[in-house]
Write a structure and sequence with these properties.
The protein is mainly alpha-helical. The chain has helices spanning 4-7, 12-26, 29-39, 59-74, and strands at residues 44-45, 48-49, 52-53, 57-58. Strand 2 (48-49) and strand 3 (52-53) form a beta hairpin.
Length: 75
């Protein structure tokens, strides 16, 4: 038995994010605004080298810049 999200080629976490976004958008105006605020995330990460933590970076910003760098390299 195959799951639809696997057949679509996405991860389970991405599937859940899409489903949550659809549910939030289907709500009436008041509850929708509250649900959208709860759905916002700010993920951060830091690289560790030689036992020391590097600078904390926003995951979304880091992904966007990495994708832009990759796109520039492939041209």
């Amino acid at each position: 038995m195959s799951f639809a999200w696997k057949a679509a080629g996405i991860t389970y976490n991405r599937y859940l994010a899409i489903a949550a976004r659809v549910v939030r958008r289907s709500l009436k105006e008041g509850p929708r605004l509250q649900a959208e605020r709860r759905g916002e995330m700010d993920l951060r990460f830091a690289k560790w080298q030689n036992g020391k933590q590097g600078e904390n970076k926003n995951l979304g910003d880091a992904n966007a810049s990495a994708m832009a760098e990759h796109a520039a390299e492939t041209k």
